[in-house]
Amino acid sequence: MKATIERATLLKSLGHVQSVVERRNTIPILSNVLIEAAAGGGLKLMATDLDLQIVETVDAQVETAGSTTVSAHTLFDIARKLPEGSQVQLTASEGKMLVVAGRARFNLSTLPRDDFPVIAEGDLPTRFELPAATLRQIIDKTRFAISTEETRYYLNGIFLHVTDEAQPLLKAAATDGHRLARVTVPRPEGAAGMPDVIVPRKCVGELRKLLDELDGSVEVTLSPTKIRFGLGTAILTSKLIDGTFPDYSRVIPTANDKLLRIDPRSFEEGVDRVATIASEKTRAVKMALDKDKITLSVTSPENGTAAEEVSGDYDSAGFEIGFNARYLLDILGQIEGDTVEVHLADAAAPTLIRENDKAAALYVLMPMRV
Question: Which long-range contacts (CB under 8 A, 24 or more apart) does 245-248 make?
């Protein structure tokens, strides 16, 4: 194999594929990136961790077609340190790969292409397209609520499912048991009858990075066990989480009769300020509601106390409720409008937070005892 590629193109592509590769691997070939040079020109780069696979096709001049696998992180580090604008020549033969750029030469060990594992996709019967902006919104407004607790593995991802309500919808939800985030978008054409799927956290993270550079649409194809995203020159394929996502609609409160309307920025800043002295373990902030006046306070045995008044629109009976400041800030950070609605019931009931009843996203937050 012999090919020449621009440093910037190689670096960008390796940046995408090498982040899939785990730093510590018991199987040596999983540390490698597969590089295939096609006879007609162009390089295909591929990396996998056996659950997630990324393939990217880039422009390159190919003298001799062929393929090999080489350490992904090493090649990425080399490409990063090469001079800007340089042409990189890759030549592979007899278990070695020679990388030449200007006066720099690297001779790297390779592993045979035939040993490289490829995720067998099988049949992916559901196919639809989503605008990249919509997919970005779905991920950004839900991923902070994905659980990191390995024992409840079925919560370690974003749950995607379709519903036939008054209008057909595609819903995305994530929860860690303390908070829930849900986004609703119109159901894309072709998504009818789609199986309920849980997209793993790592796949979500890699997909979000790739979406930053994409303006058009993303082609989504899936089966009950695999999902594939077509993103321009890159294709991301992932196994899905084999588990049943809980019926989260049961925890979305429908009868919370106390409504607080408040400016999300001043609310967020107030919570952030008083939480400065909150203890790391609980991060609890207390919210005392009175007519059009909200008092945020924190009491910490080791640091002292803090309080701040924030103005808001509230005219129900006054009461006190506690929240984890970190969770509350995560939710407020996703609110883009000038007001946020906080629907409350009492100090022990789940609280519903959303911009308004037309908003695509809604959040549920469990209170804390303070």
Answer: 245/154, 245/155, 245/159, 245/173, 245/196, 245/198, 246/154, 246/155, 246/175, 248/159, 248/173, 248/175, 248/180, 248/182
Residue type, 257: D
Fold agreement between 2-115 and 252-365: yes
Candidates 325, 329, 318, 328; CA nearest to 297 is 325
The domain made up of 126-250 has a fold known as DNA Polymerase III; Chain A, domain 2 (3.10.150)
Chain segment 57-115, per-residue pLDDT in tens: 999 999 999 999 999 999 999 999 999 999 999 999 999 999 999 999 999 999 999 99
The CATH class, in words, for 252-365 is: alpha beta
SS3 222: strand
CA angle, 137 then 141 then 146, to 5°: 125
Domain boundaries, the chain: 2-115, 126-250, 252-365
Give the tens place of pLDDT for each residue, 173-194.
999 999 999 999 999 999 999 9
CATH architecture of residue range(s) 2-115: Roll (3.10)
CA–CA distance, 49 with 244 (Å, rounded to integer) = 23
Helix boundaries (H) for 128-211: 132-142, 201-211
d(CA 361, CA 370): 28
**Distance from C-alpha of 251 to C-alpha of 351, rounded to nearest angstrom:** 10
Q: How far apart are CA 143 and CA 359, in angstroms?
A: 18
